[in-house]
Task: inverse folding
């Protein structure tokens, strides 16, 4: 993202006086910079300049001392204001929010009684004004505001009445992370005159502070640093505040002002796009050396974090021959604490370097350390810019810090020659579909700063891209520039014709059928992040040796508390259910289709393919071998009521049968009749859990009521039920044979009930399967409708009542047919389970 204060933009490109933030955003959108937001002042009402006339400290019973202040705001009488801060004095100019003003929050200001006084306004801190984080100290205006009349509007003085346009910058256009780049793009969009702020006069002094580049392990043959510029400025009041205009622009750009030395480097980075660094000269031993880190070296960066480095990290060190040789920083990412500018610093070494984008990106991601510098370097910085940016910093330090610059200049320049390439002129019109003339194409390329060799009537030109556009490496990139600057809206819209004979694969159709079936059953499809932490395995009651605890750890997780890939969909789906229930949806049913990860011992580290060429079959095969098995799974969870209560009816809560029915529905959606048997698997209740299997007997999942301990640990409603199936195995069992419609008999059905007494341990589904097998071809359906337990049949027995429906395709059934089928069913159940007919 880049924030663009309009007055700052106007310094480098002509902006019409009546141009609004919307106008500028629309112009930038026309050349491909997406508008993200327009930031306007979050303050309204009377916010004025005041002068403190008197301060009366008043200790309070709570141990706090408040100040009862008299403040002149340009009115007939001064105003009395209570203030809890103590960093201002009589005579200071301050910002006063009068009653009727509204500060960011929103926080309306009114006259109110507090600490025994009527406080008639507020003396504001930078945090209360929304321009910084310091809440404890009052904003004391710089002397440059001393001439501002008391009672005058303070918002223009602080730049708080300006509009700021924020645009989204794509990774290939790093030059747009600067006012220089944005101004150039605005000039492309409007034709306005552009003034390059990097056009500065450079001194030709002797070689200055020693610098050596010793990258002995370049990545992909590219050195980590190819240019290093350094200058020295002495006698600088480095710790003093930066000038007000600079602080204002830093705030508008989203950065916090710190001190003159730090603010100047940040300001020039935002202005030109070149990251810079300021060292305390007396804390650095000459020469500076840029090299690869040694594995295991440690560096404490300016965020006070100690980091253990690898031999891929590029570092900046001071002289290896000095007794206290140290690492000074991670090149292009963040500086170290040992050499940072402090309140005592007066002599400064200014660094401007050009670092390899890949090296910076790898280090930044390895440490999960994103800085303003790394964002720019990894997108590509103008390799010609460093000396101009350093000169700009030197000029500002001299002007506002009272310093003097050494004549000596260090410029270690090992840049490769900018590569030109051939460009076929007619390729532009063929690719875009518009007839661009050679003169029009040349005008665009020269407008973006490219050097074009060749006449307009030549079919092939040789083009050298500008130094600030490292993304232009082929003729396709140049075609995109022509299309972009001549207007995407000029390109006609033409939808491609769909190729014949293509559509969803069998697996895609199966997944969609299952999702549609579950949605029709009342479940809502959700999508959760597939990352979990160790506590979720405990909450799901996994045993210590459970294979589902064997999860793949992510090297750079989004959150430290969730570093593993999930091994079960329920591990991330159940927290989604909890969140919905916690927000008032007490009757909830959700499902998710997603991948789970099952690592094995055979997994090895994937090779890193070269960037300059397409990886070969062996490299691709090695990458695929390094991938863990990631099958698709479908899981669902239900809580509350299956049927809501209505007047006269109490409703029906969800039960373990509902979870099993959802699993069976998923199979029926694909024409597969799944079977269920009793099971004891975490996280389900051991007495209310079913293993779900294919007709072949392969178990592909489980369904039932969750274990009470899991419900408590996950903070779910009591009696929550869930199911999970291996979707890959389920869709793989879909038959490829043509579906044949079953014959529909026109003859009447015969019905009969059958109650069998079996041991308590015998699953009802097994008895039902035996009845189907023994009843013969005439039985059309068998359904369990009652289970009875009581003293009449014994304490360790249960009675299972089944409803049987018979039908023949060619005749009306006789009593003898029904009896024969009935006896076959009884005999089969008796032989398999010792079942007895209940009298």
Result:
């Amino acid at each position: 993202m880049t924030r663009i204060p309009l007055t700052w933009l106007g310094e480098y490109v002509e902006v019409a006086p009546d141009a609004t933030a919307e106008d500028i955003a629309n112009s930038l959108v026309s050349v491909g910079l997406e508008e993200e937001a327009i930031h306007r002042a979050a303050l309204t009402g009377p916010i004025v300049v005041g002068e403190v006339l008197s301060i009366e400290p008043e200790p309070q019973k709570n141990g706090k001392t408040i100040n009862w202040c008299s403040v002149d705001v340009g009115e007939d009488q001064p105003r009395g204001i209570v203030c809890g801060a103590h960093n201002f004095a009589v005579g200071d100019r301050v910002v006063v929010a009068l009653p009727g003003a509204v500060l960011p929050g929103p926080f309306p200001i009114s006259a109110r009684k507090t600490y025994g006084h009527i406080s008639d306004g507020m003396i504001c801190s930078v945090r209360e004004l929304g321009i910084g984080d310091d809440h404890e100290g009052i904003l004391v205006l710089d002397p440059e505001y001393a001439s501002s009349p008391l009672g005058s509007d303070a918002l223009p003085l602080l730049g708080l009445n300006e509009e700021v346009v924020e645009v989204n910058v794509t990774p290939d256009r790093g030059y747009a992370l600067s006012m220089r780049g944005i101004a150039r793009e605005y000039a492309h969009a409007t034709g306005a005159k552009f003034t390059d702020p990097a056009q500065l006069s450079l001194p030709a002094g002797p070689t200055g502070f020693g610098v050596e580049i010793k990258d002995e392990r370049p990545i992909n043959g590219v050195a980590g640093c190819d240019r290093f510029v350094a200058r020295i400025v002495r006698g600088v009041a480095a710790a003093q505040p930066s000038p007000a205009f600079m602080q204002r622009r830093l705030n508008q750009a989203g950065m916090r002002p710190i001190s003159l030395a730090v603010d100047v480097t940040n300001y020039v980075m935002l202005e030109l796009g070149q990251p810079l660094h300021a060292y305390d000269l007396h804390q650095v031993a000459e020469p500076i050396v840029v090299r690869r880190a040694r594995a295991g070296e440690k560096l404490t960066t300016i965020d006070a974090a100690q980091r253990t480095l690898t031999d891929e990290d590029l570092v900046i060190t001071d002289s290896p021959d000095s007794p206290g040789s140290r690492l000074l920083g991670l090149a292009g990412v963040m500086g170290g604490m040992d050499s940072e500018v402090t309140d005592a610093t007066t002599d400064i070494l200014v660094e401007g370097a050009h670092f390899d984008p890949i090296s910076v990106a790898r280090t930044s991601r390895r440490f999960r350390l994103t800085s303003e510098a790394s964002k720019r370097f990894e997108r590509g910085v103008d390799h010609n810019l460093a000396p101009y940016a350093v000169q700009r910093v030197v000029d500002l330090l001299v002007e506002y810090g009272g310093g003097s610059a050494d004549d000596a200049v260090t410029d270690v320049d090992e840049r490769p020659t900018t590569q030109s390439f051939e460009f076929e002129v007619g390729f532009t019109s063929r690719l875009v579909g518009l007839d661009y003339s050679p003169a029009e194409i040349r005008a665009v390329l020269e407008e973006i700063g490219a050097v074009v060799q060749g006449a307009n009537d030549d079919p092939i030109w040789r083009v050298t891209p500008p130094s600030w556009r490292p993304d232009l490496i082929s003729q396709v990139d140049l075609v995109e520039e022509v299309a972009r600057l001549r207007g995407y809206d000029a390109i006609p819209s033409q939808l491609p014709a769909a190729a014949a004979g293509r559509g969803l694969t069998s697996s895609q159709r199966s997944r969609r059928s299952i999702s549609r079936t579950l949605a029709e059953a009342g479940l809502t499809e959700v999508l959760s992040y597939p990352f979990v932490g160790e506590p979720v395995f405990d909450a799901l009651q996994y045993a210590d040796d459970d294979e589902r605890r064997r999860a793949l750890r992510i090297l750079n997780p989004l959150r430290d508390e969730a570093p593993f890939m999930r091994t079960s969909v329920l591990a991330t789906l159940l927290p989604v259910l909890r969140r919905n229930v916690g927000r008032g949806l007490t009757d909830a049913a959700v499902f998710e289709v997603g991948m789970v990860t099952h690592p094995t011992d055979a997994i090895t580290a994937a090779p890193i393919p070269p960037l300059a060429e397409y990886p070969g079959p062996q490299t691709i095969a090695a990458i695929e071998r390094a991938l863990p098995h990631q099958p698709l799974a479908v899981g669902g969870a239900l809580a509350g009521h299956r049927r809501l209560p209505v007047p006269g009816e109490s409703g029906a809560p969800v039960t373990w049968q509902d979870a099993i029915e959802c699993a069976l529905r998923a199979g029926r959606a694909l024409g597969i009749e799944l079977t269920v048997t009793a099971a004891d698997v975490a996280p389900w209740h051991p007495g209310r859990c079913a293993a779900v299997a294919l007709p072949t007997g392969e178990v592909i999942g489980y369904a039932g009521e969750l274990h009470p301990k899991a419900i408590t640990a996950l903070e779910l409603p009591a009696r929550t039920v869930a199911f999970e199936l291996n979707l890959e195995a389920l869709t793989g069992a879909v038959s490829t044979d043509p579906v044949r419609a079953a014959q529909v008999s026109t003859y009447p059905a015969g019905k009969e009930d059958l109650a069998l007494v079996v041991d308590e341990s015998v699953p009802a589904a097994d008895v039902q399967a035996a009845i189907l097998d023994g009843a013969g071809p005439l039985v059309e359906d068998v359904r369990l409708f009652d289970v009875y337990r009581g003293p009449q049949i014994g304490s360790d027995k249960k009675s299972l009542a089944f409803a049987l429906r018979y039908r023949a395709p060619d005749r009306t059934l006789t009593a003898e047919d029904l009896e024969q089928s009935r006896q076959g069913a009884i005999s089969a159940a008796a032989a398999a389970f010792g079942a007895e007919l209940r009298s």
